[in-house]
Design goal:
alpha+beta; 388 residues; single chain; 17-stranded antiparallel β-sheet; 19 strands
Length: 388
């Protein structure tokens, strides 16, 4: 989870690159403040400075922090940096109970100008190491952490219009000697014009009547690196006026060693299947809660085909029956078709659940899908239901 700074970096579209170490900054006389400025400088910035440094209520407060990266054509400014419980360790890392960055702005003038701003970034249990001129501005000022919260985030790319995010949270809670980690990533109030997506996605959303989107996202899970037990307790993506997709899953055999081996497996199918034999699924639920998208799709299809909504629903259900014929399980086909028909007639919640009587390996799933698709519904004990 400490590598989760990458998630925030993608959200604000921060540039990533490698740059040479800049020249020395002017020391402030405050060890903690100088340690922080040294960290910023080590991220590949020059002209690192603060207009004022003071001690306030036990905290070190820097005002008017600024820095420039010529290679990335970036300008970083931070209105205030408040460091609570800050010390510089033997490796010149800045260790702090809490760091609060107020009024942050990163401006990129490479080609077309773009910038990102945040009202407040709060880092809990921060560990900021000296870098080697690599990474991004965000990775530099976040370092390692237990929790990061960002409020009032706005990214303004050169094209596509601004993207605003009310709140971002990334948190982890290690336990059992660091082998088990519970983590959470949440984005609230992500707003943008559909033009930001560009291409077919923009056209599709406009066709069904959307011009702006407001999205929330949540990932909450637990992972045992050594034992391999993994649980996605809540993975939800929701959009106002469209709906929400939620996934919950429980798996085993997902050890750090297995993940490394899978990534290094290349194109060796035999090796990959052998590794996937050790990864199993014990429960899976996927749920869609409609918030207007289903009826919009039905209405759009009705207009395009010149028919009424009931004919669209009947045709969609029949197409599903035909697609499921390959499974060769009439009872399962009827269950799914009935659920879809009920959902489209009165859009509410559509749920697919898998509760196998015993754990099923991922290799078994692949094999069943290719060789015996009819076995999958029973193997996984799949049920599909619709509720208004």
């Amino acid at each position: 989870m400490r590598r989760a700074t990458l998630v925030l970096t993608l959200v604000v579209a921060a540039a990533v690159g490698t740059v040479p170490r800049a020249g020395a900054f002017e020391a402030t006389g405050n060890a903690v403040a100088d340690g922080f400025l040294a960290v910023v400088q080590s991220g590949g910035y020059m002209d690192v400075a603060a207009t004022d440094v003071a001690r306030q209520d036990g905290a070190t407060v820097l005002t008017g922090v600024s820095a420039t990266s010529e290679d990335r054509a970036e300008r970083l400014t931070i209105g205030t940096v408040e460091i609570n419980g800050g010390v510089i360790d033997a490796d010149n890392r800045l260790i702090a109970d809490r760091i609060a960055y107020g009024d942050v702005r990163i401006t990129n003038r490479g080609g077309q100008e773009a910038d990102s701003t945040a009202t407040l970034i709060t880092v809990t249990n921060a560990r900021l190491p000296l870098r080697e001129g690599d990474g991004s501005w965000l990775a530099t000022v976040l370092g390692g952490f237990e929790r990061v919260e960002v409020d009032g985030l706005v990214a303004r790319p050169p094209v596509g219009g601004p993207v605003s995010v009310q709140h971002v949270e990334v948190a982890s809670a290690p336990a059992d000697g660091g082998e088990v980690t519970s983590g959470r990533i949440a984005l609230e109030g992500v707003e943008f014009d559909v033009a930001f997506l560009q291409g077919a996605a923009t056209q599709f959303l406009r066709d069904v009547g959307y011009e702006r989107m407001t999205i929330d996202a949540l990932l909450d899970g637990r992972w045992d690196r050594a034992g391999g037990a993994a649980a996605i307790r809540d993975l939800t993506l929701s959009a106002d006026g469209l709906g929400a997709v939620t996934l919950e899953a429980t798996m085993d055999g997902v050890t750090a060693a297995t993940i490394t081996a899978l990534s290094d497996g290349g194109g060796d199918v035999g090796r990959l299947l052998s590794l996937l034999q050790t990864v199993s699924v014990s429960a899976l639920t996927v749920r869609y809660d409609d918030d207007g998208l289903a009826q919009r799709l039905i209405d759009r299809a009705a207009v395009q085909r010149g028919v009424d909504g009931q004919e669209v629903i009947a045709g969609t259900v029949q197409a599903l029956r035909s697609a499921l014929a390959v499974v060769g399980d009439p009872a399962f086909t009827e269950e799914v078709a009935s659920a879809l028909s009920a959902f489209l007639a009165d859009p509410g919640t559509l749920t697919l659940s898998a509760a196998p009587p015993s754990e099923v390996s991922v290799a078994q799933l692949f094999g069943g899908a290719v060789m015996q698709p009819r076995s999958l519904p029973a193997l996984l004990n799949v049920t599909v239901t619709a509720t208004p």
